[in-house]
Write a structure and sequence with these properties.
Elements lengths: L4 H14 L43 H10 L7 H15 L5 E5 L10 E5 L8 E8 L8 H12 L9 E7 L5 H9 L4 E10 L2 E9 L1 H8 L3 E8 L6 E9 L2 E2 L10
Parallel strand pairs: 3-4, 4-5
Antiparallel strand pairs: 1-2, 2-3, 5-6, 7-8, 8-9
Helix pairs in contact: 2-3
Length: 258
C-alpha cells in the first residue's frame, strides 16, 4: 500500500538525520538546506570516450567486473573484489556530481584509482582530477588526506600542476580530524563520502572541499541534500547534489576512456 503523508514525513525525517550534514570548507557561498528539492531520481549523464589505457584487459565497468568475478570465482570478501567493486561504484556514481573518470591502476599508480575531469558550472573547461577510492571498515583519519596529498607528486603527465584537484572517495564520514586536514591542506582536495546501497548503486552522502578548490574553479558552487521517492514507492532516497545559482545543477558528463 502507498505510504500515508504521515509515514512519508517520518521517513523523510529519518533519512535526513541518518547521514552527516554537508560540510563546505570554502569561503564560497553554499546552500546547507536539507529541504526537499525535486522528488525524482537524478538523471545519469551521457557517455563517450577518451583514449586512455585500460586498467584491466578483463573488465572496464562494474557490470563487466561482476561478470569477470563470477567467471573466475573471485570471492566477494577478498580485498581485490571489494577494492575493484568500490572503484567502479565511485566511477559511476560521481558522474552525477560532474566527474568524468577512467579507472587506472597498477603497482606504480601512487594510490591513484581514477583519472579524469570535473565539469563545473562555474568553468568553461573542466578541471583535471585524480581520485583515491577507500572502502573503509574503520573510522577515517587525517592520514588519508596526507596520502592524497602525496599522490599529487606521483600523478601522471597531464595531471600535474596547480589546477589539478585531488579527490578522496570513502565509505565513511569525514571525522573532525579529516575536516581539519582538508581545511589546512596546501593542495586543492575534496572529500566525498559515497556509500553502496546495493544493486550496483552508490549514493553520495557528504561532500567537502577546501578554499584551494574554490580558488581553482569551484567558487560559487554549493551542495545540497536532495530527496526523491524510492523506486519501490515505499520510501524516500537522498543524495548530495551540486547547486549553482540557487538551483540543483544537472551535469551532462562523458565517461573517460569508455
Amino acid at each position: 500500500m502507498p505510504l500515508t503523508d504521515t509515514q512519508l514525513l517520518s521517513t523523510f525525517r529519518r533519512i535526513r538525520h541518518s547521514f552527516p550534514s554537508p560540510v563546505f570548507l570554502s569561503a564560497s557561498k553554499c546552500i546547507f538546506s536539507a529541504a526537499t528539492t525535486d522528488i525524482e531520481a537524478p538523471r545519469s549523464p551521457s557517455t563517450s570516450s577518451l583514449l586512455l589505457p585500460q586498467s584491466s584487459p578483463h573488465h572496464n565497468s562494474l557490470t563487466t567486473f561482476l561478470a569477470h568475478a563470477r567467471q573466475t570465482s573471485l570471492s566477494p570478501t577478498s580485498t581485490t573484489y571489494i577494492g575493484t567493486y568500490y572503484e567502479y561504484l565511485c566511477l559511476t556514481s560521481l558522474r552525477r556530481l560532474g566527474f568524468s573518470l577512467h579507472r587506472t591502476g597498477g603497482r606504480s599508480d601512487h594510490g591513484i584509482d581514477l583519472l579524469g575531469h570535473w565539469h563545473l558550472p562555474s568553468l568553461p573547461h573542466p578541471l583535471h582530477v585524480f581520485v583515491q577510492c577507500k572502502a573503509l571498515r574503520a573510522k577515517a583519519g587525517p592520514n588519508l588526506v596526507r596520502e592524497l596529498e602525496g599522490a599529487f607528486n606521483g600523478a601522471p603527465q597531464g595531471w600535474k600542476g596547480e589546477q589539478v584537484v585531488g579527490v578522496l572517495c570513502a565509505t565513511r564520514e569525514a571525522t573532525k580530524g579529516v575536516r581539519e586536514a582538508v581545511r589546512h591542506s596546501r593542495r586543492p582536495v575534496v572529500w566525498i563520502m559515497l556509500q553502496d546501497v546495493g544493486n550496483g548503486q552508490g549514493r553520495v552522502r557528504q561532500v567537502l572541499w577546501n578554499q584551494r578548490v574554490a580558488a581553482v574553479g569551484a567558487e560559487g558552487v554549493g551542495v545540497q541534500l536532495r530527496h526523491w521517492m524510492g523506486e519501490d514507492g515505499q520510501g524516500m532516497d537522498c543524495e548530495m547534489a551540486l547547486m549553482w545559482e540557487g538551483k540543483v545543477w544537472e551535469p551532462e558528463v562523458k565517461e573517460e576512456g569508455g
